[in-house]
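Hello support,

Our group uses your service weekly, and this is the first time we've seen a run hang past the timeout. The protein is Aconitate hydratase. I'm not sure whether the cause is the sequence or the server load. Input pasted verbatim:
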Amino acid sequence: MARNVAQKLIASHLVEGDLTPGSEVGLRVDQTLTQDATGTMVMLELEAMGLDRVRTELSVQYVDHNLLQTDEKNPDDHLFLQSASERFGLWFSKAGNGVSHPVHQAHFGRPGATLIGSDSHTCAAGALGMLAIGVGGLEVAMAMAGQPLYVALPEIWGVELTGDLPDWVSAKDVVLEMLRRHGVSGGVGRIIEYHGPGLAQLDAMDRHVIANMGAELGATATVFPADDAVRDYLEAVGRGDEFESWEADEGASYDLTEHIELSELEPLIAKPSSPGNVVPVAEVAGEEVSQVVVGSSANPGLRDFAVVAEILDGQQAHSQVSVDINPTSREVLADLISGGWLGALVGSGARIHQSGCMGCIGMGQAPASGRNSLRTMPRNFPGRSGTEEDAVWLCSPETAAAAGLTGQITDPRTLTDSHRIVYPRPVMPTRYANIQDMLVAPLPAEEAAKVELVKGPNISSLPDFEPIEDSVSAPAILVMGDDVSTDEILPAGSQVLPFRSNIPRISEFAFTRIDPDYPANARAAEGGHVVIAGRNYGQGSSREHAVIAPRYLGLKAVIAVSFARIHWQNLANFGIVPLEFDDPADLEQIGVGDEVVLEGVHQALRGGTSVPATIGGREVALTHRLSDRQVDMVLAGGRIPLTAQEV
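Update from on-call engineer: The timeout came from a worker crash unrelated to the input. Re-ran successfully.
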């Protein structure tokens, strides 16, 4: 039978289950990726499991999120992560080396491999013909321990690309077009596979841009073929011998189909405060701008910075605009220097920052209040930038550069007339810079066994959680709407993320963007509590702190119209029951303070999918989608205690 690329990748790694969409399958994991905002918890989980050494082909720990060192917390965690990498046999990418996703693609990604990461944008590696999936940290820890990744097998969504991109339109506009059409939940339960003749003009880093923001569509993964463009990229980073061809068979089909004619695209932009709020740039042209930020894993390639440099070359950025440049890796910075592009950026007045996520995760670069910030980043959830009432727009490097010049949102196509700028097509080097010194290789096993974990005072052990009772009676202390993000459940940013290794402390920030009194109200509900939400609850980051912190404060169950994939998995991993309304209209009848009563929980979870409940004195029909394996986890109090029972 003819197979597409995604089907080939799944079949080659299938260890449990079959290829029926919706059924749970177990997949062999070749590689893992962790970063410092989530990796400290993963390393504590490995310690709790008593793991001797990772059992994957390759695992890498990156330090790219929490780079600001305003006190001892972040550098203490960096030391802990390096010692844990030495102890458990991981590669370690030092602070300042770059953002995990482009660095992993350059040094470790290989066609045909599976990669999971405790970062939702791990899916970017699909640019190389990999099956790359963002998951919660505990899923990564289990894969490091040699266990399969369990997922509900997604449908394969084939997106055919035809034609050529016009001037002033680039890869970011392709994925923004997908978001314009389908919103932030259009990819839920699906793997997106791009194919067609239009791929010929998209190099591997262009594909990285598109694959990266598959996370914003809610997709499980994004897959591109490993073709000549991937071969060229691997040769340019000095790893041409690792190329393997992974392409769809002739006559391969898809569960769903889509078509994008590239020549018909125009510059697009996502308005505040959702990646799915996409409109043509021309529609909002004229809005004043005070900040432009270029960088992040959503536009990480040398070309993305070089095109901005060539647009700004010989001109000064607008006097009211701060143009911030975050090189995504030390190698990109080296190539910007050797290509002369860094000089053009410096000459334009741009501010050059260190290689890392920076403003993308709210770690510095907060915009002024009441002012627009244009960013080449993947997310613009409310307050994520570090400014409470922020106005963050997501766009391509071309659109960002145009705003940097004019001081307002500007259709970059108009620069040809207004500034006499010909659309730049920077010539990329045949060999990219290759810097190995910031990557620390795993220690030999005998040396690793002697390493002691370095724990600063801000690093605490994982809390012990009790299993869910058979009878639950608890108040609903939050009732929320659709598309609640993990940034709203547990914020990112420089004030919160330094406590990522300290669950009691970080729990004080849980849900405070929605209700500042949530932590106090949760503690006051001595028998535990429940939260209620609408569609796509838990979209966004993979950080499992958004589950662990409310769990620490007594969260028993989440009842929603629907869940985002990673957060739903994380809830089960830590023993919180995720339930869905049979009738979404029931949400409208529930108020804060209503008592939620669940009787016979254990039998209901084991006996089928129906979980009867009473909420506010009304009978409400609820459903769960947990597999038998996940039910066992929930009833044991989470995956870690279940694993301990099995051992």
